[in-house]
Amino acid sequence: MISLSHVTLSYGARPVVEDVNLSIERGENLCLVGPNGSGKSTLIKGMLGLIKPASGEIVRTKSLRCAYLAQAHTFQRDFPATVWEVVLSGTLDRSFNPFITRAQKKRAQEALERVRLSDLAGKRIGSLSGGQQQRAFLARAIAHEPELIVMDEPCSALDPVITKELYSLFDELKREKGLTMLIATHDWDYVHEHADRVLVLNRTVRYLGPAAHWHSHREDGDMCK
């Protein structure tokens, strides 16, 4: 779906990620791990086309439908958008048609049902808990009908119970919709239990392969934590 060949990403003259080779396979859960400052977010931006490579090549499948879920953020309680409006915005495309179709509304409703948030559709997004807000943004991503969901530490700052609920949703989406997932995370327990492959990054690729085999390749102590 996305392939990288000898990709280096830089901010100015300073390389942040160097010489990355990677192919994301359809239907897999690929987890991206590494310490803070290792280049995980930069690599994600490169794969999404937000940063051009300083060298190397990034190739995406033609017309690839990709959605993005960022870190959990807490909105102010008076933020005016409702949960429904946030999720419905995920159905919009580049045509900028001012009219919302019945099909778009159906997609938004189905996405809300998928994350079990239908009863809060009319609430302001800022009135929800952090976990509920993240479920709403996951619904927004689903409403886009993506083939690939890219998530950058989607459960950071959430308590363990909510985190476990979100992980269960990720598994359901992969199993039932056949979605491909790229998840940057510090949660090694999740990686070990759910990842098909793990990419360990610390500016360069330190390991790429099955999570179960990583322990025998470790070179950097607790760099995954």
Characterise this structure.
- With 225 residues, this protein is of the alpha/beta class.
- Helix content is 29%, strand content 26%.
- The protein has 6 helices and 9 strands.
- The protein has helices spanning 40-47, 83-88, 102-114, 130-143, 160-177, 188-194, and strands at 2-11, 14-24, 29-33, 55-60, 66-69, 148-152, 180-184, 197-202, 204-209.
- It has a 6-stranded mixed sheet, sandwiched between helices. The chain has a 3-stranded antiparallel sheet with strand order 2-1-4, covered by helices on one side.
- Strand 8 and strand 9 (204-209) form a beta hairpin.
- Helix 3 crosses helix 4 (130-143).
- The chain is globular, with a radius of gyration of 18 Å.
Give helix % range: 25-40%
Estimate the global geometry from the Cα principal axes: globular
> For the terminal residues, how far apart are their CA atoms?
28 Å
Q: How large, in whole angstroms, is the Cα Rg?
A: 18 Å
**Average pLDDT:** 87
Question: What sequence of helices (H) and strands (E) makes up the elements?
Answer: EEEHEEHHHEHEHEE
Structural class: alpha/beta
- Biggest pleated-sheet summary: 6 strands, mixed
Number of helices: 6
Q: Based on DSSP secondary structure assignment, what is the total number of beta strands?
A: 9
Proportion of β residues?
25-35%
Task: Provide a concise account of the structure shown.
The protein is an alpha/beta fold and 225 residues long.
Topology overview:
Elements: E1 2-11, E2 14-24, E3 29-33, H1 40-47, E4 55-60, E5 66-69, H2 83-88, H3 102-114, H4 130-143, E6 148-152, H5 160-177, E7 180-184, H6 188-194, E8 197-202, E9 204-209
Parallel strand pairs: 3-7, 3-8, 5-6, 6-7
Antiparallel strand pairs: 1-2, 1-4, 8-9
Helix pairs in contact: 3-4
